[in-house]
Amino acid sequence: MNYPFDLQTAWFLLVGVLLIGYAILDGFDLGVGSLLLIAKNDQDRRILLNSIGPVWDGNEVWLVVGGGALFAAFPDVYATVFSGFYLALMLLLVGLIFRAIAIEFRSKEASTKWRQFWDISFSVASIVIALLMGVALGNIVVGIPVEKDMEYVGGFFNLLNPYSLVMGLTTVSLFMMHGAIYLMMKTEGEIRERVAVWGKYATGAFIGMFVVLTAATFMFAPNMSEKILKNPVLMVLPAIALLAILSVPRMMLKAKEALGFASSCLAIASLMGLFGLGVYPNMVPSNINPAYNLTIRNASASEPTLTTMMSIALLGMPFVIAYTIAIYRVFRGKVHVDHLHY
Hints:
Strand content: under 5%
Order of helices and strands: HHHHHHHEEHHHHHEEH
Radius of gyration: 20 Å
Number of helices: 13
Mean pLDDT: 91
Helix content: over 70%
Number of strands: 4
Strand order of the largest sheet: 1-2
Structural class: mainly alpha
Largest sheet: 2 strands, antiparallel
Number of domains: 1
Protein backbone atom coordinates (compact mmCIF):
# COMPACT_ATOMS: atom_id res chain seq x y z
CA MET A 1 0.00 0.00 0.00
CA ASN A 2 1.31 3.44 -0.93
CA TYR A 3 0.42 6.35 1.36
CA PRO A 4 -0.02 9.89 0.00
CA PHE A 5 2.15 11.42 2.74
CA ASP A 6 5.69 11.40 4.11
CA LEU A 7 5.97 8.16 6.08
CA GLN A 8 8.93 9.31 8.20
CA THR A 9 7.09 12.44 9.31
CA ALA A 10 3.90 10.44 9.87
CA TRP A 11 5.77 8.05 12.16
CA PHE A 12 7.42 10.96 13.97
CA LEU A 13 3.93 12.32 14.64
CA LEU A 14 2.56 8.92 15.64
CA VAL A 15 5.35 8.30 18.16
CA GLY A 16 4.72 11.81 19.45
CA VAL A 17 0.99 11.16 19.87
CA LEU A 18 1.71 7.95 21.80
CA LEU A 19 4.14 9.75 24.11
CA ILE A 20 1.64 12.56 24.63
CA GLY A 21 -0.99 9.95 25.50
CA TYR A 22 1.38 8.39 27.99
CA ALA A 23 2.34 11.74 29.53
CA ILE A 24 -1.32 12.70 30.01
CA LEU A 25 -2.55 9.35 31.31
CA ASP A 26 0.38 8.06 33.34
CA GLY A 27 1.28 11.64 34.25
CA PHE A 28 -1.61 12.01 36.68
CA ASP A 29 -0.98 8.71 38.45
CA LEU A 30 2.74 9.54 38.71
CA GLY A 31 1.55 12.83 40.20
CA VAL A 32 -0.71 11.00 42.65
CA GLY A 33 2.26 8.82 43.64
CA SER A 34 4.44 11.89 44.13
CA LEU A 35 1.81 13.36 46.48
CA LEU A 36 1.08 10.14 48.35
CA LEU A 37 3.32 10.73 51.37
CA ILE A 38 1.67 14.10 52.06
CA ALA A 39 -1.55 12.27 53.03
CA LYS A 40 -1.81 12.29 56.81
CA ASN A 41 -3.15 8.78 57.50
CA ASP A 42 -3.54 5.30 56.03
CA GLN A 43 -7.14 5.77 54.93
CA ASP A 44 -6.29 8.92 52.97
CA ARG A 45 -3.45 7.09 51.25
CA ARG A 46 -5.77 4.22 50.40
CA ILE A 47 -8.23 6.68 48.87
CA LEU A 48 -5.45 8.18 46.75
CA LEU A 49 -4.29 4.76 45.57
CA ASN A 50 -7.84 3.62 44.83
CA SER A 51 -8.36 6.68 42.64
CA ILE A 52 -5.74 5.32 40.22
CA GLY A 53 -6.06 1.63 41.04
CA PRO A 54 -8.29 0.60 38.10
CA VAL A 55 -6.34 2.56 35.46
CA TRP A 56 -2.64 2.92 36.34
CA ASP A 57 -1.48 -0.28 34.61
CA GLY A 58 -3.54 0.48 31.50
CA ASN A 59 -1.94 3.91 31.34
CA GLU A 60 1.49 2.33 31.02
CA VAL A 61 0.36 0.49 27.88
CA TRP A 62 0.89 3.78 26.04
CA LEU A 63 4.57 3.74 27.01
CA VAL A 64 4.96 0.16 25.79
CA VAL A 65 3.23 0.96 22.50
CA GLY A 66 5.29 4.13 22.10
CA GLY A 67 8.52 2.20 22.69
CA GLY A 68 7.45 -0.45 20.21
CA ALA A 69 6.61 2.18 17.61
CA LEU A 70 10.00 3.83 18.10
CA PHE A 71 11.75 0.48 17.69
CA ALA A 72 9.80 -0.37 14.54
CA ALA A 73 10.00 3.00 12.81
CA PHE A 74 13.35 4.38 14.00
CA PRO A 75 15.51 1.42 15.07
CA ASP A 76 18.76 3.41 15.03
CA VAL A 77 17.25 6.00 17.38
CA TYR A 78 16.05 3.20 19.66
CA ALA A 79 19.52 1.63 19.69
CA THR A 80 21.39 4.89 20.32
CA VAL A 81 19.03 6.12 23.02
CA PHE A 82 18.92 2.79 24.84
CA SER A 83 22.70 2.45 24.80
CA GLY A 84 23.32 6.08 25.78
CA PHE A 85 20.61 6.22 28.44
CA TYR A 86 21.19 2.64 29.58
CA LEU A 87 21.64 3.27 33.32
CA ALA A 88 18.87 5.88 33.36
CA LEU A 89 16.52 3.47 31.58
CA MET A 90 17.39 0.70 34.03
CA LEU A 91 16.52 3.06 36.88
CA LEU A 92 13.28 3.88 35.07
CA LEU A 93 12.49 0.19 34.72
CA VAL A 94 13.22 -0.43 38.41
CA GLY A 95 10.91 2.47 39.26
CA LEU A 96 8.11 1.05 37.13
CA ILE A 97 8.55 -2.38 38.73
CA PHE A 98 8.56 -0.96 42.26
CA ARG A 99 5.41 1.05 41.58
CA ALA A 100 3.59 -2.06 40.41
CA ILE A 101 4.77 -4.13 43.35
CA ALA A 102 4.10 -1.39 45.88
CA ILE A 103 0.50 -0.68 44.92
CA GLU A 104 -0.36 -4.40 44.87
CA PHE A 105 1.56 -5.44 48.00
CA ARG A 106 0.86 -2.58 50.44
CA SER A 107 -2.41 -3.98 51.80
CA LYS A 108 -1.38 -7.63 51.89
CA GLU A 109 -0.32 -7.14 55.52
CA ALA A 110 -1.95 -5.05 58.24
CA SER A 111 1.43 -3.99 59.65
CA THR A 112 1.92 -0.21 59.73
CA LYS A 113 5.63 -0.53 58.88
CA TRP A 114 4.82 -2.81 55.96
CA ARG A 115 2.42 -0.28 54.47
CA GLN A 116 4.76 2.63 55.12
CA PHE A 117 7.59 0.86 53.31
CA TRP A 118 5.49 0.28 50.21
CA ASP A 119 4.01 3.77 50.33
CA ILE A 120 7.50 5.26 50.40
CA SER A 121 8.56 2.93 47.59
CA PHE A 122 5.58 3.95 45.47
CA SER A 123 6.08 7.65 46.05
CA VAL A 124 9.85 7.68 45.52
CA ALA A 125 9.51 5.54 42.38
CA SER A 126 6.87 7.93 40.99
CA ILE A 127 9.11 10.96 41.56
CA VAL A 128 12.18 9.24 40.10
CA ILE A 129 10.26 8.13 36.97
CA ALA A 130 8.96 11.65 36.34
CA LEU A 131 12.40 13.14 36.96
CA LEU A 132 14.14 10.70 34.60
CA MET A 133 11.60 11.34 31.85
CA GLY A 134 12.18 15.06 32.11
CA VAL A 135 15.95 14.59 32.13
CA ALA A 136 15.71 12.45 28.99
CA LEU A 137 13.66 15.12 27.17
CA GLY A 138 16.08 17.79 28.33
CA ASN A 139 19.01 15.91 26.85
CA ILE A 140 17.22 15.54 23.54
CA VAL A 141 16.77 19.33 23.49
CA VAL A 142 20.42 20.25 24.17
CA GLY A 143 21.88 17.20 22.41
CA ILE A 144 23.99 14.29 23.59
CA PRO A 145 27.52 13.17 22.64
CA VAL A 146 26.86 11.10 19.54
CA GLU A 147 29.68 10.48 17.05
CA LYS A 148 29.60 9.10 13.53
CA ASP A 149 28.05 5.66 13.10
CA MET A 150 25.40 6.84 15.59
CA GLU A 151 27.47 5.82 18.63
CA TYR A 152 26.94 7.40 22.04
CA VAL A 153 30.33 8.26 23.56
CA GLY A 154 29.30 9.88 26.86
CA GLY A 155 28.56 8.51 30.30
CA PHE A 156 25.69 8.62 32.76
CA PHE A 157 26.77 11.91 34.33
CA ASN A 158 26.79 13.61 30.93
CA LEU A 159 23.02 13.35 31.14
CA LEU A 160 22.85 15.26 34.43
CA ASN A 161 23.50 18.70 32.98
CA PRO A 162 21.81 21.83 34.41
CA TYR A 163 19.24 22.21 31.63
CA SER A 164 18.12 18.58 31.80
CA LEU A 165 17.80 18.73 35.59
CA VAL A 166 15.62 21.83 35.28
CA MET A 167 13.50 19.95 32.73
CA GLY A 168 13.28 17.00 35.13
CA LEU A 169 12.11 19.12 38.05
CA THR A 170 9.60 20.88 35.81
CA THR A 171 8.21 17.50 34.77
CA VAL A 172 7.88 16.39 38.40
CA SER A 173 6.00 19.58 39.34
CA LEU A 174 3.80 19.33 36.21
CA PHE A 175 2.77 15.77 37.06
CA MET A 176 2.12 16.71 40.69
CA MET A 177 -0.21 19.48 39.51
CA HIS A 178 -1.86 17.10 37.04
CA GLY A 179 -2.28 14.44 39.73
CA ALA A 180 -3.72 16.89 42.25
CA ILE A 181 -6.40 18.04 39.80
CA TYR A 182 -7.25 14.43 39.02
CA LEU A 183 -7.60 13.74 42.75
CA MET A 184 -9.94 16.71 43.11
CA MET A 185 -12.22 15.01 40.58
CA LYS A 186 -12.05 11.64 42.34
CA THR A 187 -12.37 12.63 46.01
CA GLU A 188 -14.87 14.44 48.20
CA GLY A 189 -15.19 15.90 51.69
CA GLU A 190 -12.21 16.81 53.85
CA ILE A 191 -9.63 14.98 51.76
CA ARG A 192 -10.73 16.87 48.66
CA GLU A 193 -10.17 20.14 50.51
CA ARG A 194 -6.65 19.04 51.46
CA VAL A 195 -5.97 17.92 47.90
CA ALA A 196 -7.07 21.35 46.64
CA VAL A 197 -4.40 22.94 48.85
CA TRP A 198 -1.78 20.53 47.50
CA GLY A 199 -2.89 21.43 44.00
CA LYS A 200 -2.36 25.16 44.63
CA TYR A 201 1.21 24.56 45.84
CA ALA A 202 1.94 22.13 43.00
CA THR A 203 0.56 24.58 40.42
CA GLY A 204 2.64 27.39 41.86
CA ALA A 205 5.74 25.20 41.79
CA PHE A 206 5.10 24.19 38.19
CA ILE A 207 4.51 27.75 36.96
CA GLY A 208 7.73 28.83 38.69
CA MET A 209 9.70 25.97 37.14
CA PHE A 210 8.10 26.61 33.75
CA VAL A 211 9.35 30.22 33.80
CA VAL A 212 12.85 29.02 34.73
CA LEU A 213 12.75 26.34 32.01
CA THR A 214 11.60 28.83 29.38
CA ALA A 215 14.47 31.17 30.23
CA ALA A 216 16.92 28.25 30.24
CA THR A 217 15.66 27.10 26.83
CA PHE A 218 16.34 30.51 25.28
CA MET A 219 19.78 30.42 26.88
CA PHE A 220 20.91 26.83 26.20
CA ALA A 221 18.77 25.82 23.21
CA PRO A 222 17.73 28.90 21.20
CA ASN A 223 17.25 26.66 18.17
CA MET A 224 14.02 25.35 19.74
CA SER A 225 12.24 28.60 18.82
CA GLU A 226 13.65 29.01 15.29
CA LYS A 227 10.65 27.53 13.44
CA ILE A 228 8.19 29.66 15.39
CA LEU A 229 10.18 32.85 14.78
CA LYS A 230 10.37 32.08 11.06
CA ASN A 231 6.68 31.21 10.78
CA PRO A 232 4.52 33.41 13.05
CA VAL A 233 1.47 31.21 12.41
CA LEU A 234 3.09 28.62 14.68
CA MET A 235 2.82 31.10 17.57
CA VAL A 236 -0.61 29.58 18.14
CA LEU A 237 1.01 26.55 19.80
CA PRO A 238 2.89 28.40 22.59
CA ALA A 239 -0.19 30.62 22.98
CA ILE A 240 -2.36 27.55 23.57
CA ALA A 241 0.19 26.17 26.04
CA LEU A 242 0.33 29.42 28.00
CA LEU A 243 -3.46 29.84 28.10
CA ALA A 244 -3.91 26.21 29.19
CA ILE A 245 -1.36 26.61 31.99
CA LEU A 246 -2.97 29.82 33.25
CA SER A 247 -6.41 28.21 33.06
CA VAL A 248 -5.46 25.49 35.55
CA PRO A 249 -5.30 27.64 38.73
CA ARG A 250 -8.34 29.62 37.55
CA MET A 251 -10.44 26.45 37.22
CA MET A 252 -9.16 25.15 40.55
CA LEU A 253 -10.14 28.41 42.24
CA LYS A 254 -13.65 28.08 40.80
CA ALA A 255 -13.82 24.40 41.90
CA LYS A 256 -14.30 23.36 38.26
CA GLU A 257 -11.86 20.48 38.51
CA ALA A 258 -13.03 18.76 35.31
CA LEU A 259 -12.21 21.86 33.27
CA GLY A 260 -8.99 22.22 35.23
CA PHE A 261 -8.03 18.67 34.37
CA ALA A 262 -8.87 19.29 30.71
CA SER A 263 -6.66 22.40 30.82
CA SER A 264 -3.85 20.40 32.38
CA CYS A 265 -4.17 17.75 29.65
CA LEU A 266 -4.08 20.45 26.99
CA ALA A 267 -1.03 22.03 28.62
CA ILE A 268 0.84 18.71 28.54
CA ALA A 269 -0.16 18.03 24.93
CA SER A 270 0.82 21.52 23.74
CA LEU A 271 4.13 21.48 25.63
CA MET A 272 4.97 18.11 24.10
CA GLY A 273 3.94 19.55 20.74
CA LEU A 274 6.37 22.44 21.23
CA PHE A 275 9.10 19.94 22.06
CA GLY A 276 8.41 17.96 18.89
CA LEU A 277 8.23 21.10 16.76
CA GLY A 278 11.52 22.33 18.16
CA VAL A 279 13.53 19.15 17.54
CA TYR A 280 11.97 18.13 14.18
CA PRO A 281 13.36 16.68 11.92
CA ASN A 282 15.97 15.55 14.43
CA MET A 283 15.33 12.60 16.71
CA VAL A 284 18.63 12.62 18.64
CA PRO A 285 20.74 15.76 18.15
CA SER A 286 24.51 15.42 18.56
CA ASN A 287 26.30 18.09 20.59
CA ILE A 288 29.59 17.06 18.98
CA ASN A 289 28.74 17.77 15.37
CA PRO A 290 25.31 18.47 13.80
CA ALA A 291 26.35 16.19 10.94
CA TYR A 292 26.03 13.27 13.39
CA ASN A 293 22.40 14.07 14.29
CA LEU A 294 19.97 11.18 14.07
CA THR A 295 17.05 12.42 12.00
CA ILE A 296 13.78 10.99 10.74
CA ARG A 297 15.60 10.38 7.43
CA ASN A 298 18.89 8.74 8.34
CA ALA A 299 17.59 6.74 11.31
CA SER A 300 14.31 5.38 10.00
CA ALA A 301 13.44 1.84 8.98
CA SER A 302 13.06 0.90 5.33
CA GLU A 303 10.13 2.15 3.30
CA PRO A 304 8.44 -1.31 3.15
CA THR A 305 8.76 -1.65 6.93
CA LEU A 306 7.26 1.79 7.56
CA THR A 307 4.44 1.03 5.13
CA THR A 308 3.59 -2.32 6.72
CA MET A 309 3.77 -0.93 10.25
CA MET A 310 1.58 2.03 9.33
CA SER A 311 -1.13 -0.37 8.14
CA ILE A 312 -0.92 -2.21 11.45
CA ALA A 313 -0.97 1.06 13.41
CA LEU A 314 -4.04 2.33 11.58
CA LEU A 315 -5.83 -0.90 12.45
CA GLY A 316 -4.59 -1.17 16.04
CA MET A 317 -4.79 2.40 17.37
CA PRO A 318 -8.62 2.56 17.38
CA PHE A 319 -8.66 -0.48 19.68
CA VAL A 320 -6.17 1.12 22.10
CA ILE A 321 -8.22 4.33 22.16
CA ALA A 322 -11.52 2.46 22.56
CA TYR A 323 -10.11 0.36 25.41
CA THR A 324 -8.87 3.47 27.19
CA ILE A 325 -12.20 5.28 26.83
CA ALA A 326 -14.13 2.22 28.01
CA ILE A 327 -12.02 1.79 31.16
CA TYR A 328 -12.35 5.41 32.19
CA ARG A 329 -16.08 5.31 31.54
CA VAL A 330 -16.57 2.22 33.69
CA PHE A 331 -14.55 3.62 36.61
CA ARG A 332 -15.79 7.23 36.43
CA GLY A 333 -17.02 8.99 39.56
CA LYS A 334 -15.76 9.49 43.09
CA VAL A 335 -13.78 7.01 45.16
CA HIS A 336 -16.01 5.55 47.89
CA VAL A 337 -14.33 4.91 51.24
CA ASP A 338 -16.39 1.76 51.84
CA HIS A 339 -14.83 0.08 48.77
CA LEU A 340 -11.09 0.51 49.29
CA HIS A 341 -9.07 -2.33 47.81
CA TYR A 342 -5.49 -1.04 48.09
